[in-house]
């Protein structure tokens, strides 16, 4: 709650940065409910390849998405060192499998640079909301709702 | 709480009242003439009307009003609730229910029907009773008779305490009120009853004074000597001059509650010049009404006289007020003195009384509380977690401590016991009697009996049998269909019944009972029973069975559960519409239930369905398929078998059949159909689960291995994911992992070639 | 000191409406579900005024009013009856039983408060 007040007054935001393969991404910390270790998921029939299956999150069924595969990179091979970011996308909870959480960043909006005009696919354009230059690294800000468009979730 | 919440409460209450109404009417129909039954029926309608009025639900109010009027005739024995009358009333109850639903959900109602019933109800209220004796007096609007003055109860004068009471202090001369406004003269003579009913002359005068400028004259001429003064009687009368622009109606409103118990004259004073205080044969009283307000009165007077004046005024006020309120003040004093010794005995008596009252309350029903269903569901979920957690704990203790420290094991066993008990108790919270669903059925029976011209009596038994709310909610639909079927197809027409030597009235009996952890609902009719020849022929015509198939009676009877099977020669509007008993069977199975029929030609049929007591947990068979753990609902499984190579037969390009007792049953590889593996597994290495699904079709589901049977807590997949075809829900096993629960029906349908692809899924239906 | 109102009505809807209306008007409200309960709680509730329905299970409004009037402490307490307009006969019976006044259903919050004010000091 105090965070909301802060973000409103300083126009800043807190982002959680994580590594997927050799790239870094970040999402708004407000959409992250918790971070937990990898546990084997139960496979779902007829699910897309990036859908690793479902796990038990304190009694609720939580779908786990391989973010690497979802973002068009090499499918992950989950190990105990992998991390699941439990995020809230609209009314549903979803687990994102990433390699590691790297940072929590507090930035102001002016630090977010427009997405460079090099991306090839419409899909990448749709989820990338800009890039950040932090200590010589490049971190791509992504929007979760764009990665899991509602139509697709409801299509099934 | 806001109005919307109260409205929600109102509709909940309506549902209860409607149930009360119907069950009361049905009792009357069975010949019950207990006045309390009639009262309860009347109250139900009255209550709905009252609430509906508060929310401006005019249609509901006007119908309820007519209904109530007719019921009042029954209540006051002016209308005998014979069968014809009750027929109208039961229909009216249905319309009232429709109107209530329409008011809640904004739907429309059959207006012609409700108008027709209003006419019928009014006719009943007017004494136009079919079959009723002509001697029955036509009920007329009862004209209120003037209340006979109730004699005040005799009061003992013993112990009467004299009260200081001076009449000498009433001063003359109040200034006449300002005359710019119309002035009314009000003569107000309270009767003793005024006080006995909790009205106070002083309060009326206070309210009157708020209307404008007023002067009051109190006539105490009727006051007897103290010895003769009855504390219960009224002796004062008042003449009031009130200058107000509020009008006579405002004055009448002040006396609204008192008008029966006083003589009241209100007249407009035309000519103020003729008015003079001296001409009145009354003592003008400087009546200071501020005594009734919270602030003390401020006396204005000459300084040296102030104290005396104040005290005199106080006396006057006291005298006026206590005189006006004789009933409350004087009486209390008198009686408290007289009653003093008796009071000691009172506590004992009142204790005995309250004990009796408590007993009465207990017999009226155990106390209940209303709880938001969401809260109960949350509790049930949490207990589900507890059960899983406990199982996980047990499992890990066993794994880590093979030889088992006895104290830990004992503790675990106790924990397990407690968790079970908590789970059972929590489930019991949501358990509800099937009564409301059964009650709805009586309406269905009435409607279909009407449509088919059959005469039907519905008997319900065991309606207090409890089952989880989740089951109750889903019970109504299949049950409705079965009842329709029983009346439409099961029972014969009155003519045929009479010809068969039966009574013209058919009987449908609906029974609920608990049997080995399940609820069993039986629907029996005394109709013609299943025409097996006809069913058999139809099945042959529809290629359901071979022309020379050798079927037992039971097998023939159960053919009616096949998809699209209907024996009615013409599709009737009632149980037609292409919806057959197959749909009923399917929805019962979807609830984890089973349904059977047994029929006796000429004597009727009995449908028996057995359902789990809850949908929150399920008895499942835990199996392994392609390294995944799955749960198959136990209710779907007919038997399990270990296929032998000789029993497996290839069929077509990639179909395989298994022969079971000389019949061939298609084999379905669950792992393949769920896309868990690319090629079919070898049936001989696995286990076949013979399942029954939609339309009674059997399939052998191939799984790799059976792990065991257990009760699992059902978890929604839709909450965070989406509906997955072929999967009914998920559950969490003892090791904390999620296992999927198979939807046997869709798996079997998929094996018939229907796609299991998400686009083709039944998400919308789920 | 808040005035205390005892309401007696078997309808949950009406009870809730009374509660909201009376609380908003600054009264302290004690509620009973029927005449029997009304009489049971009477002493403890110690109300300044009573508002009661007529049609109730176990003990109706008439019986309840008679019961209150038999209690010496409350024989002169103002009792308002919730009634429907059509019930001239009932109004009459209620008066015979000892009702002080009546409130016509569906009650209008203002009228309810007015009526209570009218019969209480």
TrEMBL record, chain C:
Protein name: Response regulator
Keywords tagged on the record: Phosphoprotein
Highest taxon in the source lineage: Bacteria
Domain Response regulatory per the UniProt entry, residue ranges: 4-120
Modified residue annotations for 4-aspartylphosphate: 53
GO biological process terms held by the UniProt record: phosphorelay signal transduction system
Pfam families cross-referenced by the UniProt entry: Response_reg
């Amino acid at each position: 709650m105090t965070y909301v007040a802060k973000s409103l007054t300083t126009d800043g935001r807190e982002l959680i940065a994580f590594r997927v393969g050799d790239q870094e991404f970040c999402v708004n910390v407000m959409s992250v409910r918790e971070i937990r270790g990898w546990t084997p998921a139960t496979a779902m029939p007829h699910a897309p390849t990036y859908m690793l299956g479902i796990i038990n999150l304190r009694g609720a069924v939580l779908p786990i998405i391989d973010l690497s595969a979802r973002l068009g990179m090499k499918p992950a091979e989950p190990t105990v060192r992998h991390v699941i970011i439990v995020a809230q996308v609209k009314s549903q909870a979803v687990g994102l499998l990433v390699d590691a959480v790297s940072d929590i960043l507090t930035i102001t909006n002016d630090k977010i640079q427009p997405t460079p005009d090099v991306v090839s696919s419409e899909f990448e354009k749709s989820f990338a909301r800009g890039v950040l230059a932090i200590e010589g690294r490049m971190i791509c800000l992504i929007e979760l709702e764009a990665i899991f468009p509602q139509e697709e979730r409801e299509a099934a | 709480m806001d109005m919307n919440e109260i409205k929600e409460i109102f509709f909940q209450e309506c549902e209860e009242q409607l149930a009360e109404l119907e069950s009361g009417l049905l009792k009357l129909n069975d010949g019950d003439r207990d006045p309390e039954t009639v009262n309860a029926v009347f109250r139900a309608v009255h209550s709905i009307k009252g609430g509906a009025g508060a929310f401006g639900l005019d249609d509901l109010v006007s119908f309820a009003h007519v209904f109530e009027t007719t019921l009042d005739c029954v209540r006051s024995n002016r209308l005998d609730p014979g069968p014809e009358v009750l027929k109208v009333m039961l229909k009216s109850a249905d319309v009232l229910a429709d109107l209530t639903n329409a008011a809640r959900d904004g739907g429309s109602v059959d207006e012609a029907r409700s108008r027709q019933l209003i006419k019928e109800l009014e006719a009943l209220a007017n004494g136009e009773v079919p079959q009723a004796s002509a001697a029955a007096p036509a009920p007329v609007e009862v004209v209120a008779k003037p209340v006979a003055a109730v004699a005040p109860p005799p009061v003992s004068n013993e112990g009467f305490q004299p009260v200081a009471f001076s009449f000498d202090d009433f001063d003359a001369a109040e200034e006449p009120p300002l005359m710019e406004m119309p002035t009314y003269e009000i003569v107000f003579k309270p009767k003793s009853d005024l006080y006995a009913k909790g009205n106070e002359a002083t309060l009326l005068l206070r309210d009157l004074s708020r209307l404008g400028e007023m002067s009051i004259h109190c006539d105490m001429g009727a006051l007897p000597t103290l010895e003769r003064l009855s504390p219960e009687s009224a002796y004062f009368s008042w003449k009031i001059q009130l200058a107000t622009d509020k009008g006579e109606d405002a004055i009448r409103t002040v006396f609204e509650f008192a008008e029966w118990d006083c003589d009241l004259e209100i007249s407009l004073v035309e000519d103020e010049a003729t008015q003079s205080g001296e001409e009145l044969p009354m003592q003008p009283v400087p009546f200071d009404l501020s005594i009734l307000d919270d602030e003390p009165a401020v006396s204005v007077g000459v300084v040296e006289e102030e104290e005396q004046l104040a005290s005199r005024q106080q006396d006057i006020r006291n005298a006026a007020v206590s005189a006006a309120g004789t009933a409350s003040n004087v009486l209390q004093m008198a009686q408290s003195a007289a009653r003093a010794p008796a009071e000691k005995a009172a506590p004992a008596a009142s204790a005995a009384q309250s004990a009796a009252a408590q007993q009465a309350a207990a017999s009226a029903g155990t106390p209940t509380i209303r709880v938001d269903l969401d809260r109960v569901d949350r509790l049930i979920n949490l207990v589900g977690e507890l059960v899983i957690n406990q199982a996980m704990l047990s499992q890990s203790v066993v794994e880590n401590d093979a030889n088992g420290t006895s104290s830990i094991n004992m503790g675990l066993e106790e924990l397990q016991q407690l968790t079970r008990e908590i789970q059972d108790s929590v489930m019991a919270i949501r358990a509800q009697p099937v009564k409301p669903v059964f009650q709805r059925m009586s309406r269905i029976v009435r409607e279909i009996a009407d449509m088919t011209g059959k005469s039907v009596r519905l008997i319900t038994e065991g309606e207090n049998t409890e089952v989880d709310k989740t089951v109750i909610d889903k019970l109504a639909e299949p049950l409705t269909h079965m009842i329709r079927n029983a009346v439409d197809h099961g029972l014969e027409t009155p003519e045929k019944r009479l010809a068969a030597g039966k009574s013209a009235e058919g009987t449908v009996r609906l029974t609920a009972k608990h049997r080995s952890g399940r609820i069993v609902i039986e629907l029996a009719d005394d109709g013609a029973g299943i025409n097996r020849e006809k069913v058999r022929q139809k099945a042959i015509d529809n290629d359901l069975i071979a022309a020379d198939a050798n079927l037992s009676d039971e097998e023939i009877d159960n053919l009616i559960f096949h998809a699209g099977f209907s024996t009615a020669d013409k599709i009737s509007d009632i149980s037609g519409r292409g919806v057959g008993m197959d749909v009923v069977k399917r929805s019962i199975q979807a609830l984890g239930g089973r349904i059977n029929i047994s029929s006796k030609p000429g004597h009727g049929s009995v449908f028996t369905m057995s359902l789990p007591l809850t949908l929150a947990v399920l008895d499942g068979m835990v199996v392994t398929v392609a390294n995944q753990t799955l749960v198959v609902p136990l209710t779907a499984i007919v038997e399990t078998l270990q296929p032998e190579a000789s029993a497996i037969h290839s069929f077509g390009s990639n179909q395989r059949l298994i022969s079971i007792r000389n019949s061939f049953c298609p084999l379905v590889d669950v792992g393949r159909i769920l896309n868990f593996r690319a090629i079919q597994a070898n049936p001989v290495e696995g286990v076949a689960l013979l399942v029954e699904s939609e339309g009674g079709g059997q399939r052998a589901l191939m799984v790799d291995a059976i792990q065991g049977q257990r009760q699992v807590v059902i978890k929604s997949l839709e909450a965070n994911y989406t509906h997955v075809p072929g999967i009914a829900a998920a559950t969490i096993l003892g090791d904390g992992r999620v296992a999927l629960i198979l939807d046997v029906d869709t798996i079997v349908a998929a094996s018939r070639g229907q796609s299991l692809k998400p686009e083709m899924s039944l998400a919308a239906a789920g | 000191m808040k005035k205390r109102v005892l309401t007696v009505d078997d309808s949950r809807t009406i009870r809730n409406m009374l509660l909201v209306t009376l609380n908003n008007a600054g009264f302290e409200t004690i509620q009973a579900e029927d005449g029997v309960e009304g009489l049971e709680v009477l002493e403890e509730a110690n109300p300044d005024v009573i508002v009661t329905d007529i049609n109730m299970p176990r003990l109706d409004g008439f019986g309840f009013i008679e019961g209150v009037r038999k209690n010496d402490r409350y024989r002169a307490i103002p009792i308002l009856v919730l009634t429907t307009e059509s019930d001239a006969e009932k109004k009459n019976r209620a008066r015979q039983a000892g009702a002080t006044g009546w409130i016509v259903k569906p009650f209008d919050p203002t009228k309810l408060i007015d009526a209570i004010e009218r019969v209480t000091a």
